[in-house]
Design goal:
The protein is 50% helix and 12% strand. The protein has 238 residues and is an alpha/beta fold. The protein folds into two domains: 150 residues, Rossmann fold, CATH 3.40.50; 78 residues, Putative phosphatase, domain 2 (DNA polymerase, domain 1, Orthogonal Bundle). Strands 3-2-1-4-5-6 form a six-stranded parallel beta sheet, sandwiched between helices. Helix 2 packs across helix 4 and helix 4 packs antiparallel against helix 5. The termini are close together.
């Protein structure tokens, strides 16, 4: 029987990728005239991925990648006023409204009455805590776990921390490499809710995706409303 349900945050409970997508379009506008838009997008994508090891996940690291891209694209000739515009863009992202996905609040509310819920998500501690507060979901989670990455070692640490067996733990998220594969690797259950936009650095290899249906502990959902039924299925399997 499941005792703990862990939820990813960004693009699982609330929309996040569209905010970055919109900000990239604004960024291209700031750099208009310096480089072709497609080339700016490619350079930014490379910078953002490469900088993860330096700055981690989240808006702050992304803003630094925007600035670095602007400097590279303009060969360090970008006016200070445009750097300020980029910084303001980052602040807008930090303070953007939190828009929950369909069915999230009522489902989390329902499940919190029976299960221990935790938020297990990557990103900047300050920003993620602020998003949870602004989302209105904070009271439903007994614990927030903000981590730099999600791999099998992280999931093992979480299981040990809460003293729960892998077969009593369910991870819910949109990312195959971060939320699904490592959870399955340690013997936990995983509920996958794909988001319509996918980060380049979060794409799983095709061979990994093809193996997913073979896992008895893997469940593919259209939206979070289906999660109670998944828990019923797990109960039967147990």
């Amino acid at each position: 029987m499941i005792e703990i349900i862990a939820f990813d945050g960004d693009d699982t409970l609330w929309h996040e990728a569209p905010l970055f997508q919109s900000s990239v379009m604004k960024f291209k506008g700031i750099l208009a005239g310096y480089h072709e838009n497609d080339r700016v997008h490619d350079i930014l994508s490379d910078k953002a991925v490469n900088n993860l090891k330096h700055f981690g996940y989240g808006v702050k690291g992304f803003t630094l990648s925007l600035i670095e891209t602007a400097l590279d694209v303009t060969e360090d000739r970008i006016p200070a006023a445009k750097i300020r515009n980029i910084l303001e863009l980052g602040k807008e992202m930090m303070n953007a409204p939190i828009n929950l996905l369909d069915g999230v609040k009522e489902t989390v509310d329902l499940l919190s009455r029976t299960y221990k819920l935790i938020l297990l998500t990557k990103g900047d501690l300050f920003h993620q805590e602020a998003k949870v507060t602004r989302s209105g979901l904070g009271d439903y989670f007994q614990q927030l776990e903000i981590v730099a990455k999600k791999d099998d070692h992280i999931y093992e640490r979480i299981l040990n921390k809460y003293g729960v067996a892998a077969g009593q733990f369910l991870m819910v998220g949109n990312s195959v490499p971060s939320d699904i594969l490592p959870a399955l690797e340690v013997g936990a259950y995983a509920a996958h809710i794909p988001y319509h936009l996918e980060w380049a650095h979060e794409k799983a290899q095709d061979e990994d995706r093809l193996k997913l249906p073979e896992h008895q502990r893997y469940f593919l959902l259209d939206n979070l409303r289906s999660l109670p039924e998944v828990l019923n299925q797990i109960s039967v399997l147990s």
